[in-house]
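Lab notebook, bench 4. Still working through the backlog of constructs that have no structural model yet. Next entry is a single chain of 117 residues. Request: give me the structure tokens for it.
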Amino acid sequence: MVAAIQVTNLVKSFNKKNILLNLDLIIPQGSMVALIGASGSGKSTLLRHLAGLNEADKNTHSSVLALGQAVQSKGVVSADIRRIRSGIGYVFQQFNLVGRLSVLQNVLLGCLGRMPR
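Model written out:
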């Protein structure tokens, strides 16, 4: 069985400060996981890497896989990231919801890119 998420040797630093250092993580399909930690400990940075919104440091052997598909490898986001992201749900800290729409309508907006005109 392919892991839902597999992170290998993830390295990310900002201004020469290591935020994620050689992080390895495997989350089996069907698992429920809580990511907890102090402010500034790298939780949001990790989640952004899982969705291909951040790149790992260059010249590392980092890799991030989602359902067996390479989100990024060696600090380079996959050229096929848009297709891969279509199977990843991500809610930003600032929701940026459209106030006049219902919750359901806001969620369905994410599918617009896959709907025929």
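Notes after review: The chain has one domain: 5-114. Strands lie at 5-14, 17-27, 63-66, 69-73, 76-77. Flag for follow-up if needed.
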